[in-house]
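Please, structure for the following, as tokens.
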Amino acid sequence: QLSGKWFLVGMASRCSYLAEHSHQLEATTVTMTVLDGQSLAISTFRKLDRMCWEIRQHYLPAQAPGRFLLKGHRKSSKVDVVVGEADPSSFIILYYQKGRSISVKLYGRNSLVSDAVVDKFEQRARAVGLSEDVTYYFPTYGFCDSADEFHVLD
């Protein structure tokens, strides 16, 4: 159900980097591929310094359906990923928790989603203590579809 192309529509996070660079947000797409029926291969495409980059990640299945684990290089850098709400034909809301820090991301099958979906996203962000002042929306134009082999981060 989650397989295919998604557009990053919005993100609620207290990340200081995001706050300082919110004026430089780039259009971002994600391709999700379900592997072995459980884990997810994630390819994120975005521009950095006007070049298209692909960032590859692997979400491992966790204890329950709709829960994943993103392992970092250090033990302390693991991220719990939880599907908050999804309509696989139109949107998905994901929670990312690292330690005590939480972020909420809204992805759409299109770069624009309905106001009702935006309202759901904002309600879920507020429910975990993230207000409008730490909610960011991404551009709806200028997407990357691919990156050459020199611009891939695993």
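The mean pLDDT is 91. The longest helix spans residues 115-127.
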